[in-house]
Design goal:
This protein is mainly β and 134 residues long. It contains two helices and eight strands.
């Protein structure tokens, strides 16, 4: 039993996501590490947040098993835990995806935003994009 308890943490990793292009110090930057079934939906299994800082902020997501996951992030400036949108559906808060996957005529595909997590600490970076007002 003790071997199982001590071996379990080694199976999980940390993903350090440096989020660039944060527009202001308002609110928080949220990062979600998602499976194919949870990508672009509420309920990604691994999440973390950090207070926003204009420029860049690094968010550490802990307890992620080794594997490949899509990464998504947003600047929740008003801290309502929702990506706010304007009347035509464009996000009014900064959003970004793993590998800096682009939003062209809609969100990126899972494979374009996917990052392999295979080290005890895996590092990646992405940039937020603001579609209105920033």
């Amino acid at each position: 039993m003790l071997a199982l308890v001590t071996a379990r943490p080694a199976d999980a990793a940390q993903l350090a996501v440096t989020v660039h292009n944060v527009a202001s110090d308002l609110g928080r930057v949220l990062v979600a590490v998602c499976t194919p079934d949870s990508f672009l939906k509420a309920g990604c299994p691994y999440t973390a947040a950090k207070p926003a800082q204009a420029g860049s902020v690094t968010v550490i997501v802990s307890g992620v098993p080794a594997g490949t996951y899509a990464v998504q992030a947003f600047h929740d400036a008003n801290e309502n835990l929702d990506i706010d949108r304007n009347f035509i559906g464009l996000p009014t808060e900064g959003i970004g995806f793993g590998n800096d996957a682009q939003m062209r005529f809609g969100p990126p595909r899972y494979a374009d935003a996917a990052v392999a997590i295979d080290e005890p600490i895996t590092r990646t970076a992405l940039s937020l994009r603001y579609f209105t007002g920033h």
